[in-house]
Amino acid sequence: MADETVADDAHEDGSPACLVTGASGYIGGRLVPELLDAGYRVRCLVRTPHKLRDHPWAGRVEIVKGDVTDADSVARAMAGMDVAYYLVHALGTDRDFERTDRRAAQVFGEQARRAGVKRLVYLGGLTPAGVPERELSPHLRSRAEVGRILLDSGVPTAVLRAAVIIGSGSASFEMLRYLTERLPVMVTPRWVHTRIQPIAVRDVLRLLVGCARLTPDVSRAFDAGGPEVLTYLDMMQRYASAAGLPKRVIVRVPVLTPGLSSYWVGLVTPVPAGIARPLTESLRHEVVCHENDIERYVPSPPGHPLGLDRALALALQRVREAQVVTRWSSAAVPGAPSDPLPTDPDWAGGSLYTDVRERAADVPPEALWRVVEGIGGENGWYSFPLAWAVRGWLDRLVGGVGLRRGRRDARRLRVGDSLDFWRVEEIERGRLLRLRAEMRLPGLAWLEMRVDDGDGGVRYRQRALFHPRGLLGHLYWWSVSPFHAVVFGGMARNIVRAAARTRDEAR
């Protein structure tokens, strides 16, 4: 794998080359292997190449470090490319996200034209017909503007406009799943009666790959939807049926606006309000395909596009088999810390609070590591569950991600995975797990867990680190430090005990 560089012989075998942005996200992470299987060479433009390291396809792609708002890094990534996929969006958690999206699209289109790229492909949102753009949600309005900018770039562009994408791990599927499973009786806002046209993620990927083969004379937007038009209420009842749940009782109230609905969704589902809001705002208006022209250019194979029941069944099967490839939380939370690491020299002279715990473990290192790598999600955090739950609720109340994001895989982690309100920053299999906090904090925080197997036997080492931001950060640390003996001390003790139980059960 080329790390942060581009091989000079990128086209030696003559295969068409595709640039994929957003490869660490939900769609991009699934598109890359589809393109590889279709015979394309793939290059990924990512801000943090390290996050792609553990993907099963990482060794088959080139990687360029950069950002879509940085013209120089986009130019390096575009060199020698035939097709470029634009799969990045700011989800509206930043007040200036529309400006950021606009600037990024302008840079992307301009650099594609200069590099002689033959095709741009963009996945946007389906906008309601006849509704003035000023009345659209900021999220949909920005996606529509990005599509226009790319179409005006001078490079032949295909804009796919999809409404609700149904697939294991998608934000729309997770929102539908948890609302339906957790609320047998629901008081719902008026948007549950809005007509929408969902599409299975498998069909989205099929269309994205197919668009790479469009001829240069095709440069336009296409509506992309599944074969059914139904309301969100219909979708909830169909999910209940697919999951073997009783029919849900729905009570509609007119007072829940999209803004209030996002907080309601945030309380009930793992999707935080900052992401739920653009999803619910997009349902204010009917989002139904008004043409199916893409079928002329990318014909559907037998059995496609998938109906809702089949899409739900496939997504549920993936969830039950722990085979979720990417999740909505795969992309980093906007505004979450990304640099520097606690081991970087930038910390010299700065404040860095630590809480260090260490315990001898009379267990094989493999048994201890299984507990470490299995932490979080359904397994919890091995100490004072109420304290962790309260911290998660407080985070949700201030717009954070909370504890309910869970895990992508119940047994194995990879760099970049979200893990409740942490993200996997580093993993050395069998030895080190470093998590970076994505909860709302007045500073930056990490949690490190190590398994050491030396002359003195197996030891579990744990380190919590906090870099305060201003006076509030210092006050925060000193206010919570009295609880560390219970939370972090109990965590170290119980992890070792859990490993011992695993060893005993295996005998």
TrEMBL record:
NAD(P)-binding domain location: 22-127
Any one Gene Ontology molecular-function term assigned to this protein's record: aldehyde dehydrogenase (NAD+) activity
Annotated InterPro entries: DUF2867, NAD(P)-bd_dom, NAD(P)-bd_dom_sf, NAD(P)-dependent_oxidoreduct
One Gene Ontology cellular component annotation held by this UniProt entry: cytoplasm
Domain of life of the native organism: Bacteria
Cited SUPFAM superfamilies: Bet v1-like (SSF55961), NAD(P)-binding Rossmann-fold domains (SSF51735)
PANTHER family: NAD(P)-BINDING DOMAIN-CONTAINING PROTEIN-RELATED, PROTEIN YEEZ
Name of the protein: NAD(P)-dependent oxidoreductase
